[in-house]
Amino acid sequence: MPSQNMPHLFGIRHLSPCGAYHLVKFLDSTDPDMVLIEGPSDLNHMMKDMCSPETKPPFAIMAYSQTVPIQTIIYPMAVYSPEYQAVLWAYRHKKQCRFIDLPSGVFLAISEERGKDEADEHREKSVYQLMEEQLGEEQEVWWERHFEHNTADDAYRTGVYEYGKQLRDLDDSSKYHYAENMIRECFMKAQIEAALSEVPAEKTVVITGSYHTEGIKQCAALTDDEIKKLPSIPSKSTLMPYSYYRLSSRSGYGAGNKAPQYYELVWNSLNNNEPEYAMYNYISAIADYQRKNGGITSSAEVMEAVRLAKTLATMKDSLVPTLADLRDSVVTCIGHGHFSEIARAAAFNEIGRKIGSLPEGVSRTALQEDFYGQIKLLKLDKYRTLESHTLELDLRENMRVKSEKSAFLDLERSFFLYRLFVLGIDFAVNQHKKQDKATWSEVWNLSWTPEAEIQIVEAALKGDTVELAAAFVFNERLETSKNIDDVSAVIELACLCGMEKTVRSAVNVLQGIAIDTASVVEIGNTVDNMSSSVKYGSIRKLDTDQFIPVICQMFYRGCVILPQSCKCDNNAARELIPAIARLNQAEIDNDFIEHDEWIKVMNEISQRDDINTMASGFATAILLERGEISSEKLAAEVQRRLSKGIPADLGASWFEGLSMKNRYALITRLSLWEKLSEYIDTLDDEEFKRALVFLRRAFSVFSPNEKDEIAENLGEIWGVNAAQVSEVLNDTVSEEQQEMLDSLDDFDFGDL
């Protein structure tokens, strides 16, 4: 134990309820004037907020770098964290209290360098794995059995001290990890010596992880010059709410415990002086969960589980059952021997769903303050829970309320949630409910995790508010945009965010890029998106008139390059046709687009023989749908495309394109099917086989009911049973036929 010249040293395990219990009792008995705690020495200002009556654990101190990429270090606290209880004790008793570990900027710098240097280092086993080999059982279970239920004050403090010494002896860490620990201990020693110049050793208590207790006793303090030479990077810090899930070791936190909710029961058990409190509450909570979720658990099974847990503890020389004993008992008696039966109940009652909270005005970044202010203003704070909630938004003005603020509450919510999406903050996920692009209705799933809090802090470098940070992200994307698809995506998302200024900037960038673009697919996507914004922009209260000149400019360019773009193979045509459809719909939806020019282009594509026949067929379908082609002209075009002398592949491909739109109009035209029948009659056996493959693919886009109607037409023409025709039409394309299609799709119409 510590020598006479040393202050009182109290070794702990982080997140140990029994450690916190004995530490408070030790502080009561020694009544120190100075309490020194392992923690970043530049974060002492956090203690006041930690002690606020409105602060509800779990929470965490987070330090983060001020340069990109942002690095973070997190110090989580539960109600049973020894460090937290020590800070509370000092605050209540009006005693001095300080953190004494390396400043956060030094931690971040060392962590960065260690990450680089240790990349190639490999450790076969951790110190805890080595310990488990010697103990013969899981280290977590062994620790709880010997320490967490030990109410003997002196035995606990002495035992933990020796435990830390053994850890140091077993530790085979990398040289970087070893050096870091040495630097930390020597720095803490310097902080302790500085404190002892103010307060006598007997009135000073030093609280560190038990691993460091012996190291602090033996090491030499860093000098001022040595401290100045330590690497450091600019950093800031904040308090943040935390959750028991994140606190658990299952979430990846190395110093966590597997069951934070259960350890809160242990904490309550110690403070209530009821050794079996945790046991009774755990088993009864498991039974209660099972009953509430469809399980059948009798009182007899609960009593038998209690009896078995006590028996297991006695067999293993435990004072009270450990979590492992409790788990075995409920699996046997309530789960009927199967852990799967109580798995959800165990997770609920061992890890828990508890999430902490902080009072308003605590030390936060400006972005955090804005975020919390916004969710309160928008009445979203009730959704800041670990449970997933569905939120349905109606973006239309609510005429039943008096204030404008309330009338457009859902719209403002939508803006805010989309801005969070832009920043990569995982608080809400849009379900993308399709309503023919009438975007007045949205469905979001909302749930909160501490990861979201970290993401908010990481976004703090981008701006002081959620809107400013989102604008920063948009500007970065615009600066790196290489094509109109990239810019169009920014415009669409900025509209969803309700960010008018960003939209204007993106439109200016788009105008510059669009001059040189040569892709009909890109033009089709962009015109479609911007056209939808014009059509429904009023819902989001956006000035979409600025889109009109750009849409017209791009639409005209699409018309100019479209015929040449249609000189392609069938694979390219299938990518091109959706773009043609988008351009056609944009022209229908917007009266400011030149109608005659579009119809002229469709006629050209429909009639030309030197371009892809599938594209020609689709252009003909557009003209038919829009009433721009007479029955006589359609019949003539059908006869021309489906006539003897036209290769079967080309004729069938043209019909496939024709079938991609307005299929009902085709079905009702008996003359068309007569022409198709006549065409088929002219084909020899080989031509028929090739044409049949294309035709069957063309028919694949028709519904079963539509195929039945076609069968009636063909049955009438051929004088056969319609059911027989329907069976052929509904048959699937064979593998051999698909291979034929794939080979024919490579035909280059540009060579015609």
Summarize the structure.
It contains 36 helices and ten strands. Strand 3 and strand 4 form a beta hairpin. The strands form three sheets. Strands 1-6-2-5 form a four-stranded parallel β-sheet, with helices on both faces. Strands 4-3-7 form a three-stranded antiparallel β-sheet. A three-stranded antiparallel β-sheet has the order 8-10-9, covered by helices on one side.
Annotation, overall tally of beta strands: 10
User: N- to C-terminal separation?
Assistant: 95 Å
Sketch the major β-sheet. Answer: 4 strands, parallel
Proportion of residues in β-strands: 5-15%
Mean pLDDT: 83
Basic shape: elongated
Tally the helices.
Answer: 36
Q: Bin the helical content.
A: 55-70%
Largest sheet strand order = 1-6-2-5
Using only C-alpha atoms, the radius of gyration works out to: 36 Å
What would you call the structural class? Answer: alpha/beta
Query: Into how many domains do the coordinates divide?
Result: 5
> Residue ranges: pLDDT <50 for 5 or more in a row?
118-122, 434-438, 744-752
How would you describe what is shown here?
With 752 residues, this protein is of the alpha/beta class. The chain has 5 domains: 8-242, no CATH class; 260-350, no CATH class; 366-466, no CATH class; 481-565; 568-584 and 597-752, no CATH class. The protein contains 36 helices and 10 strands. Strands 1-6-2-5 form a 4-stranded parallel β-sheet, sandwiched between helices. A 3-stranded antiparallel β-sheet has the order 4-3-7. Strands 8-10-9 form a 3-stranded antiparallel β-sheet, covered by helices on one side. Strand 3 (59-65) and strand 4 (72-77) form a beta hairpin. Helix 24 runs parallel beside helix 26 (570-589) and helix 28 packs parallel to helix 30 (648-658). It is elongated and about 110 Å long. Residues 118-122, 434-438 and 744-752 have low confidence and may be disordered.
